[in-house]
Predict the structure of Putative MFS family arabinose efflux permease.
Amino acid sequence: MTSITTSLDEASPASSGRLPLSGLLALAAAGFITVLTEVLPAGLLPQMGASFAVPESLVGQLVTIYALGSLVAAIPLTAATRGWRRKPLLLSAIGGFAIVNTITAVSTSYTLTLGARFFAGVFAGLLWALVAGYAGRMVPSHMKGKAIAVAMLGTPLALSLGVPAGTFLGAFVGWQYTFGIMSGLTVLLVGWTIWKLPDFPGQEAGRQLPISGVFAIPGVKAVLFVTLTYVVAHNVLYTYIAPFLVPAGLAGSIDKVLFVFGLSAILGTWMIGMMIDRWLRELTLICIAAFAVAAVFLAVWSANSTMVYLSFAIWGITYGGVPTLFQTASAKTAGDAADVAQSMMVTVWNIGIAGGGIIGGFLLETTGVSAFSWVLLAMLALAFIAAVRARSHGFPVVAAGQ
């Protein structure tokens, strides 16, 4: 009875043209904690290395093992739980973060922490597979994009505000306390989720497509390919920001550059969210093209600090919007199979992160950072062409008045 009442309560704002913000912000908070859990070790390398008596390079693998957990678990775990009711499944994923971050907070063993980080990635893979579809089911179809944009707001907020704050807090009170605080916040989020989110049924067994069938849905492959090429381009540059900023004399201003990037990403999320339900295809093409323009600026004026800041602001705006664009395109394309399609998105996204890091590392050791912008342009050209061609399915042309 409780779940029925909650569902009706959450449906009312949507049916009256208002977003169910309390529930959507709970999803955004889940995303915030997920991203913060993923990347915070990168900001606490010295402290964690000293605690575990291991080199900083090994602490960096705490981020890698997290991505590996998401990569290997997202698709099979999401497919295996398609029949589960959505709210208990989401709570399991959120509650998992409370457990693994608590283990991390009290652990004195690098090996134990490594294992906890792997399972954190597993929970992240499941959570990201659920968020977009969950948000989309809370509103009418013509408001799905806006709802997903609100639910995705946690990502740019975590990158622009959460990571710097967590890094400062970790240096001030100790990294263990930082993870402990995240566990406490996650417990509060569990209560918020129980209170404000509606429940939805899982997919009936007779309607469940095999994974190969979901992949074969027209438009799914196009969305995944555009996502992969964009994320590879993004991570070639993002992973190696420090050496890239040296020619402009900004090596000591990484925090300021990333702050500009993060604020721009928040702006991009808001801008895309306002227009996505009507202009999804056009906004996707604009974001890819704008990132390409930023890459050209960085290629031509890589030693000009003003142009670097401008380029990072443009790049941030596009990056803030594309997760919402890609996840909305995936959810709308896959329909009832949205959660499995989103798990494929999680997998492709993590492949893109790894691929960008590998390609960027190879370029750094061979040609140097001067080649970054041109590789970005090549990847973005592939993404743009694929998005243009997906005019029937994936990123469809919408007739006037629809």
Notes: The two ends are 37 Å apart (CA to CA). Residues 1-15 have pLDDT under 50 and may be disordered. The domain at 211-401 is CATH 1.20.1250.20 (Growth Hormone; Chain: A;).
